[in-house]
Amino acid sequence: MTRVPEPLLPPIVIDDFRPRTPSGAFPAKVVEGEPVRVSADIYTDGHDELRAVARIHLATGPGSATWAEHPMTAVGNDRWEAVVTFDRAGRHEVVVEAWVDLEATWARDARIMLDAGQEPPPRRSDHVAPTGRHSTGGPHPVWVDRPRAVAGAWYELFPRSEGGFAGTAERLVEVAAMGFDVVYLPPVHPIGRTQRKGPDNTLAAGPGDPGSPWAIGGPEGGHTAVHPDLGTLDDFDRLVARARQLGLEIALDYALQCSPDHPWVSEHPAWFHHRADGSIAHAANPPKQYQDIYPLDFWPSDEAERRGLWQACREIVEFWVSHGVRIFLVDNPHTKPMAFWAWLIPAVQSLHPDVLFLSEAFTRPKVMVKLAEVGFSQSYTYFTWRRTKAELTSYVTELTSEPLVDHFRPAFWPNTPDILAGPLRGGNLAAFRLRLLLAATLVPTYGIYSGFELGENQPRSEHDEEYAHSEKYEIKARDWSAADSLAPFITEVNRARRAHPALRSLRNIAFCDSANDLVLAYARWSDDLADVVLVVVNLDPDGVQEDTVWLDLERLGLPARTPFVAYDELRGETYSWVGAAQYVRLDPAVGPGHLLHLRPVR
Amino acid sequence: MTRVPEPLLPPIVIDDFRPRTPSGAFPAKVVEGEPVRVSADIYTDGHDELRAVARIHLATGPGSATWAEHPMTAVGNDRWEAVVTFDRAGRHEVVVEAWVDLEATWARDARIMLDAGQEPPPRRSDHVAPTGRHSTGGPHPVWVDRPRAVAGAWYELFPRSEGGFAGTAERLVEVAAMGFDVVYLPPVHPIGRTQRKGPDNTLAAGPGDPGSPWAIGGPEGGHTAVHPDLGTLDDFDRLVARARQLGLEIALDYALQCSPDHPWVSEHPAWFHHRADGSIAHAANPPKQYQDIYPLDFWPSDEAERRGLWQACREIVEFWVSHGVRIFLVDNPHTKPMAFWAWLIPAVQSLHPDVLFLSEAFTRPKVMVKLAEVGFSQSYTYFTWRRTKAELTSYVTELTSEPLVDHFRPAFWPNTPDILAGPLRGGNLAAFRLRLLLAATLVPTYGIYSGFELGENQPRSEHDEEYAHSEKYEIKARDWSAADSLAPFITEVNRARRAHPALRSLRNIAFCDSANDLVLAYARWSDDLADVVLVVVNLDPDGVQEDTVWLDLERLGLPARTPFVAYDELRGETYSWVGAAQYVRLDPAVGPGHLLHLRPVR
Fold first, then answer.
1. Cα–Cα dist B340/A9, whole Å
2. Whole-structure pTM value
3. Distance between CA A153 and CA A175 in Å, rounded?
4. How far apart (Å, rounded) are the C-alpha atoms in residues B565 and B600?
5. For a FRET experiment, which of A148, A529, B231, B542 has its CA 20 to 30 Å from that of A453?
6. Could you give the ipTM of this predicted complex?
7. Please, which residues bridge with residue A511 across strands?
C-alpha cells in the first residue's frame, strides 16, 4: 500500500488559455499586425504575489530559437492577460509561465505589518512563501495568417466568359477599379467529355456545349493542366502577373473530383470507388446522380494507395503555388475527410505560410465549424439565408464572439454561381444594393459572383436556388457598360472599406438598439478607437423606413453632450450630431443606408 | 520534400463528449442509479449512415474487463446520445465508437432509388461507402459516487458542547428525529496549549478555556488522536456505530494544520515554514496573525520530505476510514495546493470509492470550481450571500447547468460556525425559516450548524460575520427543548425531502415567472416526471406577500385545462388547481411558503 505521491498538477494553476479552438487540439488563428489578447486563469493556494509572462516564438524555421516575452497582468477574477502582436505568418507557440514572487510578497506584507504596528520579518527570509513555486502552461499553438485571411473583397468570374486568360486579364482592370482585392476563378482545367452536362444541368450536352468546369480532367490533363480554350499555362502565368500589377490576387478553385476522362482514372483506378462489376462509380446522393463526376475514395483499402492519393492532392496545390497562386477556394470540403484537411493544410502552410484555404462548404453547423478548426483560413457562411434584423444580429454576434472568433473567419457572399437566394430572386436593384452593403460591412471579407452588379435575378425554378441559364454549363456574354450597373455603388463601398481599418477587424462590432425591425444599425471600430464607423441599413428594398438609432457613445469614444462629426461615405455629406439617439430616414431610391465615419470634432 | 501523409484525425469525427469537466483533464462526476446523458458530436464526410455506441466499464478492479455497450441515437445537429445508469461507485471509462454502416447505407439508397425509378446497385457492393470506416473517442473518465455525494441533509455540532462522544451519541437521537442524514463534527483531536485562543478569538486563553478545535495537536497526539475530554477512540467508534443505527453518518473535519504542540513539529520540522532564525512560522495573512496554528509547507525543498508529508496526510484519512468514517469535510482546501488534492482524493477513493470529500472553501469563483474539478465530491457555495430573487435564480441556474453540473455538487448552508450573515443577523424566526426552506429545496444538499433551530442571531460585531461568543472558542450549553424551536419545522422539511425524489436531483429545476420580487417560485422534478414539486418562498420575513406564479405545465407533465392536485407538505392541505397561473398569498406568521407536491388527478 505504499505509493509514492507524485503531483499531477504544477504548484500554480494555469487554465483556460485563449485564444484557442473549441477542442483545443488545433492552432487558434490570428493575423499579422492585429493586437491579440493572450489570456489564462492563473492562481495558486495562499496569499503570495504571483507574476506571469507569455513567451512566444515562431515554431518552425530559423527564427524558432528566439522567444519574445510579454508580461501578463491580472485583470480580475484570477484572469491574466497580455496584448501581443504577431508580426510574421506561420505557426507560433505560446507558453505561459507563472511564479511566486518572494520579494514582492515580502514587500507587500512588510508594508501591511508596519502599517498595523507589527514587526515584519527580515527581507527575503519570508515565512509565508516557501521555495519559489513555478508553473508552465502550454505550448499552445497559434497560427498567424497574413491579413488577407480575414479581410478582403472578392470577385468571382468565369474566365471562359471573359475570353480566356487573355480576356480575363483585360477584365481585371475594371475589377481592380471597383476596388476588389481577390479575383476567384472556378476550375481552369480541361473538362471531361464523357457524360458532359448540357445547359441548365441537362444530361445531354450538344457538340458546342462547354460542360461544367467542375468535371475536371480530359485527354489534355487533369488538375495541373489548363483548358486549351482558356490559353496556355504561360497565359495563366501572365494573368497572375497582371493581377499582381493591379493590386489583385488570383484565387483558384481546388475541387478534388474527376471527370471520367481524368488521367487518374486510368493511372490510379484504386483512388476511386468501384461497383461490384469493377466499374468506377460516379458521384451520387440518391436520388441525385452526378454522372459527369467520379468522386475520389480518400480511404482506399490499400494504405499505400491512400498515401499516394493524399500526396498527389498535395502536389496539385504545390503546383499552383509554384505558378504564383496563394489562395485556394476549396470546393465542397465537407465531402472529403476532415482528417485529410487536418493533414493537407498544415503540410502546405508549413512550407508556404502565406497560402490561404477558403472552405466553400454550405453544410451543417458543426461541420462548418470543424473545417475551420482543422485548418481552413476562411469559411463560407449562412449569410445568404440570414435576412431579418434578428437573424443577422444573432448570426454576426455568434461569428464575432468566442469561441468562433478565434478560428473561424467568415466570408459573406450575397450570391455565388450556385446560389441565387432571398431578396435577390427577381429582386430589384435596391435589394442588390442592400445585400451588398450588409455583406461588405458586417464582416471584413465579402464577395460577389459576376453579374451581381447587373442585377441578374432569374432563378432556374421556384424550387431551387440555381440561376436560370447557369454559367456553370454555358458561356455568358454580359454588357458591363450597362447604364444601371451597380459598379459605381460597389466602387464607393470598397473605397470606404479600404479607408476604414474599423471595417477590416472581425472583433469590434456592436449592434445598436432601434425600434424598427426593418432598420439594422451597427458600429464597428479599430482597436485603438482611432477609426469608428456606423452603418445603418434599410432592410426593406421597397419602402422608406424611419427609425431612431441609439449609439453607445462611451464605448465608441465619442462625447455624450457635445457635437461629433458623422460623415456619410456613400453620400459625401457631413452631419453634426449630438447625443446617443439619432433619427434616420432611409429611402431605397436614394440608397440602401448610411455608411458613416464618426469622429470627435477636431 | 517527400512526406508520407499520416492522418491526424480518424475518419469519423467524435467531438465534445459530455459529461466532462471544464478542462477535460479530470473525471466528470455522476452518482449511482441516476440516469446520465452520455453524448458527443459525431459526423463524417458524405452521406453514409452512421452507427454509434457508448461502451462503459469500471476502470479498476476485478470487474474492469466487462464493458457494457449502449447504442447511441442521433438527436439532431450531429449530436448523438445514450442515457445510461451507473450502478457502482468508482472510476469508470466511457469509449464512444462510431462507424459507417454499409448495409444500412445501401438499404436507404436502394429504397430512394427504387422510389425514383432508378436501378439500385447490388446489395453490399455499395458504391458510395468505401471500406467500413470506424473511429473511437476516449476513454473519457467518469467518477461514480454514491448518492450521498449529491443529496443529503447535514447537521453540524461540537461534541464538546454535547458532553463528548457519549453525550453526542445521545444527542444524535434528536438529530435523527429531525430527519438529518449526516452529522458533521469539527476536529475531535487534542488541542494545543501554546498560544491557545481565548473566548471570542482573544490572544490570552484562561486556564479553563478549551481553545479552538482547529489548533490541532498536543502531547496526547495529532490528527489520529482524540481529545481526552471527548472520550477515547473506543467511545468514538461507539458514536460512529450509534449514528449508523440511527440512519446517520458521521462526517469528520480534515484540517491540515498543526498547533505548535503537534507531534509533527518536533518529528518533522521540514514540513513547516521556517523563519530566518530557524524558528517555525505561524499562519498569517497580514495584518491577521494566527499564532495558535502552524501551516504545513506542502512544497518543502527536499523532495523526500514532500513525499513524506503528502503520504502522512493520506494516512490520516486512511486512519479515520478504518474507524468507519466515510465523509471528510476539508477545512480551507484553497490554502493547500490544488496539486495535493488532485493526488490525494483519487488515491483514497481508488481504495475506498465510497469516501466523500466536501470542500469547505469560501473563496474566489475560479478556485471554488477548480477544487471540484480536481476531485472534491461536494462544495460549499455562495448561498449564504445570495438573497434576492435575481441572485438566487441566477446562481442556482449556474449551479444546475453545464459545465458546473457535471462536476460541482453544491451544498447550501444558511449558517456555519464561521458565518452568521444576511437576514439571520439579528433576524427573527421567520428569517431562519425562509433561509432553511430555500437551502433545503433549491439544491439536494443543505446543512445547518446547531443553534440554527434556536434562532441564534447575535453577531460578534457589525463588521464581521462571526457569532458573538463563538462556539469555536468556548463550550456552549443550549436548551434544545425551547418552546419556539424550529425543530418541528425542520423535521417537516426533511420529511418532505425524503418523500420526494424530485428534491434529490441536481439537474431538474425551473424557476417560475412571477411579478413580485419578494416571491421566489421554482419547480423540481424526477427524471421520469413521476414526482413533481413546486416550492414558493416568501423572501420577506416581515410582511405578507402576494403574487401570481406561472407554471410550465407541459414541461411538468400536468394538464393545461383540467384540474390537477397540489398538496402542501408543510400545511397538510390539498388544493385543486387549474391552469398555469396560480395566485399565492404568503404570510410569514404562518410559514415561509409552500412546498407543494403536484400531480395529475388519479
1. 8
2. 0.94
3. 11
4. 6
5. A148
6. 0.93
7. A522
